[in-house]
Design goal:
Distance between the termini: 158 Å
Strand order of the largest sheet: 1-2
Radius of gyration: 69 Å
Helix content: over 70%
Number of strands: 2
Largest sheet: 2 strands, antiparallel
Shape: rod-shaped
Structural class: mainly alpha
Number of helices: 10
Length: 346
C-alpha cells in the first residue's frame, strides 16, 4: 500500500538523521521552528502544510542539537546568547530568533565539517564574539543549501505521510448507513435515525404502558374471582355448619324421645310385674284362653319369647333385665306345662 511505503521511507530517513526525541517541542524549540516556517511561508497556522513544516523543522533541530538544544555545551550556549541577546535588545524578537537560527546553522556546519558523522562530543567553543558583532553569522552557501534541501525533503515526506494517512483513514472508515425506516443517512452508523429512534422508543413506552394496564386489569379480575370463591366457600361452610347443627338438634331430640320411650316401657313392664298374680297360671302367663288350641298356644309362646328376648331388652337396667329374664323363664315353664297337658289329654 502507498501508506506503508511512505512509512518505510520516513523511518529510513529518520534512521539516517538520528533518532530524535519524540516528545512535544519546548518553548524555545516551538519559537525557532515557527520562525523558520513563517519565514518560508509554508502556509497559515493550522493547515497541513504548516504543520508538516513544523514537524520537519523539529525533526531536523533535534537530530542535530538534541531536545531543547541539549547537545550544546554551556560555553556554546553562552556564546550564542551573548551574540543574539544584543540583537533582541536592538531589533526585537523576530531578529533574535533569526539570530539564533543563524548561529545554530553555523554550529551545524562546523560540526559537519569537523565530523562527517554526528557524534555526542561537543566541538571546542569558539572564542567569544565581541560586542560589535551584533549581526548573526551567516552560514556558508554550500552548507546552507544542504540544510535547506534536507528540510525540504523531510517536509515533502511528512506531507506525503499525512496524505497517505488520510487516504488510509478514508478507506478504513466504516461505510455510512441509512435508516431502515425512513431511509435517511445515519451519521453514527446505527440502524435508525434520531427521529425514528425517538418514535420507536415512544412506541415501546406506549406498549409497556398498555401491557401494564392489561396486567392490572387481569389482576383485578383474578382478585374478583378469588373474592367470589371465598364468598362461596364461606356460604358453603355456613350451610354445612347449619346442617350439622340441625342434625345435632334432631339427634338430641331423637335421643330424648328414645329415652322417654324406654322410660315408658320400663314403667309399663314394671306395672305388669306389679299386677301379675302370685299363683303360677300358665294360661295367664301366655295370655291364652283355657280352651285355646295348640296352634294358639304356640303362637302366644312365640310372641312372649320375642317380647322377653334379652337382646331386645339390653337397653334396660340390670334390675329390670333380671326381672324380664324371670318372665322369660316363666313363659318357658308355662309352655311346657300346657304342651304336657295336651299330651296327657285322650
Amino acid at each position: 500500500m502507498p501508506s506503508t511505503r511512505l512509512i518505510v521511507v520516513t523511518l529510513g530517513m529518520a534512521l539516517q538523521l538520528g533518532t530524535p526525541d519524540p516528545g512535544p517541542p519546548s518553548a524555545l524549540e516551538q519559537a525557532l521552528i515557527e520562525h523558520v516556517c513563517t519565514a518560508k511561508r509554508a502556509g497559515t497556522p493550522g493547515t497541513d502544510a504548516y504543520d508538516g513544516c513544523l514537524s520537519a523543522q523539529l525533526l531536523s533541530l533535534r537530530t542535530d542539537f538534541g531536545r531543547d538544544l541539549s547537545r550544546l555545551s554551556v560555553s556554546e550556549r553562552r556564546t550564542i546568547d551573548s551574540v543574539c541577546t544584543k540583537v533582541n535588545a536592538v531589533r526585537g524578537r523576530d531578529a533574535y530568533l533569526a539570530c539564533l537560527n543563524g548561529q545554530l546553522a553555523s554550529w551545524r556546519d562546523r560540526w559537519r565539517a569537523a565530523h562527517p558523522a554526528p557524534v555526542d562530543a561537543s566541538p571546542n567553543p569558539s572564542p567569544p564574539v565581541s560586542a560589535a558583532s551584533a549581526v548573526p553569522v551567516s552560514p556558508s552557501p554550500p552548507a546552507a543549501s544542504r540544510s535547506y534541501g534536507l528540510w525540504i525533503g523531510v517536509t515533502v515526506v511528512t506531507v506525503l505521510l499525512a496524505a497517505g494517512g488520510v487516504l488510509v483513514a478514508k478507506r478504513t472508515r466504516r461505510p455510512t448507513r441509512t435508516c431502515k425506516v425512513c431511509g435517511v443517512e445515519v451519521p453514527d452508523g446505527g440502524e435508525l435515525c434520531q427521529k425514528c429512534r425517538h418514535e420507536a422508543a415512544e412506541v415501546r413506552r406506549l406498549s409497556a404502558v398498555e401491557r401494564a394496564h392489561e396486567f392490572l386489569a387481569k389482576e383485578d379480575e383474578r382478585r374478583a374471582q378469588r373474592d367470589e370463591e371465598q364468598r362461596r366457600e364461606r356460604a358453603r361452610q355456613d350451610e354445612e355448619h347449619a346442617r350439622r347443627q340441625q342434625e345435632r338438634v334432631e339427634e338430641e331430640a331423637r335421643q330424648r324421645a328414645e329415652k322417654a320411650r324406654q322410660q315408658e316401657e320400663e314403667t309399663r313392664l314394671a306395672r305388669e310385674i306389679e299386677l301379675a298374680p302370685e299363683t303360677f297360671d300358665p294360661y295367664v302367663v301366655l295370655g291364652v284362653a283355657r280352651n285355646a288350641s295348640k296352634e294358639e298356644i304356640d303362637a302366644a309362646y312365640q310372641a312372649a319369647k320375642s317380647k322377653y328376648d334379652p337382646d331386645q331388652l339390653s337397653y334396660l337396667s340390670a334390675e329390670l333385665q333380671e326381672i324380664f329374664k324371670a318372665k322369660a323363664q316363666a313363659v318357658d315353664r308355662a309352655y311346657q306345662m300346657l304342651t304336657a297337658q295336651e299330651g296327657e289329654m285322650p
